[in-house]
Amino acid sequence: MSEKQGNGICMFVYNNDQLDYTKFAVLASLYAKKSMNNINVTAITDDGTLGWMQQSVGDDMVDRCFDSVVIDNVTHESNMRKHMDSPWTEFNAPFYNNTKHEVFTHTPYEKTLLIDTDYLLCNDFYNYIFDTDEPIALHRYATYVGHDIPYVNEITLNNAGINHWWSTIVYFDQSEEAKLFFDIWSHVKDNWEYYSLLYQFPRMLFRTDFCVSIAVHLMNGLN
Questions:
Q1: Cα–Cα distances in Å, from 21 out to 24, 28, 116, 123, 186?
Q2: pLDDT one digit per residue (tens) for the chain, 223 residues
Q3: CA 104 – CA 165 distance, rounded (Å)
Q4: Do 188 and 113 touch, CB atoms closer than 8 A?
Q5: pTM of this prediction?
Q6: What residue spans of the chain are helical by DSSP H?
């Protein structure tokens, strides 16, 4: 593997049989490049999803959106999630996120901003983080568009639990501290049932938000 260098964005792009995540990824990349001075963007995907993206939007658009593509043909674990099209319409579809922690290895960049494919960067706010010495950065709070009160498990993992942190956006470098963060994330994933019992959260849906929350908790000395 070539030496990691520069700054850039990574996103995981894995289609399922109901949602075309390639369309999300193309839109997210175009917004990121427009808002952040044509920043480099890397897609982490599989052969099937990449083939569909090339067929549906064309090679020129793929090349425009993604400066590099990392192929990882993983076996996805079952992880069904309820999706709400509207207050009156809902459906269940697989949610493929069990390898998200592997971005530390997959990224070609020295400093990386990991974003979800359904997150749109509409300004250059995150440019500043690349100029800091922070090894890891992520958000603890999120605001709903309608300013609704967050769900309880978006504040703490349970009523008496640890603080909730978001994995929607994770900044990291290639330091030992960042590597430890992703190693703990992987450990929590591999021992999901144990940690769901320990921290008393539902185990049926695997959530990377809970993985990073536990990783932050452990790295902060259980504070």
A1: 5, 10, 10, 22, 23
A2: 458 999 999 999 998 777 799 999 999 999 999 999 999 999 999 999 999 999 999 999 999 999 999 999 987 666 555 545 555 565 454 555 789 999 999 999 999 999 999 999 999 999 999 999 999 999 999 988 888 888 887 899 887 789 999 999 999 999 999 999 999 999 999 999 999 999 988 888 889 999 999 999 999 987 6
A3: 18
A4: no
A5: 0.90
A6: 21-35, 47-57, 59-65, 103-106, 176-190, 192-199, 208-219
